[in-house]
Amino acid sequence: MSIEPTILWTVIIGLALGSFALRFVFIGLMGGRSMPDWLMRHLRYTAVAIIPALVAPLVVWPAPTGGEPSAIHLAVGCATLAVGYFTKNVFAAMGTGAVLLVGYLSLFS
């Protein structure tokens, strides 16, 4: 499947301009001003919303299994969630998840 170069470059330039515009709104226009309290309160939850959205598809439909759910990945995801919930420590949760995933995959695969 071949994409016509004109269409490809139009899409690339359009995405670049859109990305620049999104960043400029916050950095260029709001850079010298203090943000309102209501906006800062909402921005505090950005990472909490984005990180699970990036990780959840990798746990539920992992690429090594061809997109099929895997008991190992689901078990490690649940254990990581439990450690994060009870310890309130993101590094402990990430470390637990990494160790368990490597351990379970080497043990059961």
TrEMBL record:
- The keyword Membrane belongs to this UniProt entry's keyword annotation: yes
Q: Check the record and name the InterPro entries matching this protein.
A: Brnchd-chn_aa_trnsp_AzlD
Name the record gives this protein? AzlD domain-containing protein
- Per the UniProt record, the source organism is Tritonibacter aquimaris
Q: What is the lineage of its organism?
A: Bacteria, Pseudomonadati, Pseudomonadota, Alphaproteobacteria, Rhodobacterales
Q: What sections of the protein cross the membrane?
A: 6-31, 43-61, 90-108
Q: Which domain of life is it from?
A: Bacteria
Q: Which UniProt keywords apply?
A: Membrane, Transmembrane, Transmembrane helix
